[in-house]
Amino acid sequence: MTDSSAIVLAAGLGRRMRPLTEELPKPLLMLGGRTLLDYALDRFAEAGIARVVVNAHWRAELLRAHLAERARPPETRLRVEPELLDTGGAVAAALADGMLGEGPVFVANGDSLLLDGPRPTLARLAEALTEAHDVAILLARACQVRADVGAGDFFLDSWGRPRRRGEREIAPYVFAGVTLARPACFAGLNGPAFSMNAVWDRAIAAGRLAAVVHDGLWFHLSRPPDLEEAEHQLAAQITGVTT
Length: 243
Prior knowledge:
The chain is α/β, with parallel strands linked by helices.
């Protein structure tokens, strides 16, 4: 994965996580003694990804200060957005600025946390991005997520190919916060602000979207109770105590 780069999406306002995010960017919330941002950056470093961009908007100065204090890899650059560009637009802007190189780009939500299963998750995503695919997404089984995931996001057919949930359907899989996409996937979309959904939908229409089902833990952190539940689960992983 040495030709890959990554971006951690950290620009959101975190409204649903208030009051915890009234003065703090959501990726700087603490879980298990570390910030969510540090979990993401350390995972990329472990995967051998040397270059990571962090986009910022809300309380960008706090993210800048936090990154300045990090003395360990990866090499990290902050990209401040005066106006929010949404998830896909943020990646497109970083690509246009030459900050992400020419190889596949990992796009990670800065407000979630995953723990690897038997094999490293990022390596599994990289393997899924074959010549037949432009985008690979990480999915989690909705029944295993202890948070509100609504009606789910995706179905997988017998060949493992993803499709969107239709109206009045309940899908068994939810997006688990990490995408791997080729840079060309971000060209020609309505911008400058657009969602990663536009990237996924174009890949689905072309039959070039791959999906990997996560085989470890994934913490969906939307509201303060989600953070409390994740803290409990993470402690249980370390100590074995579940009550």
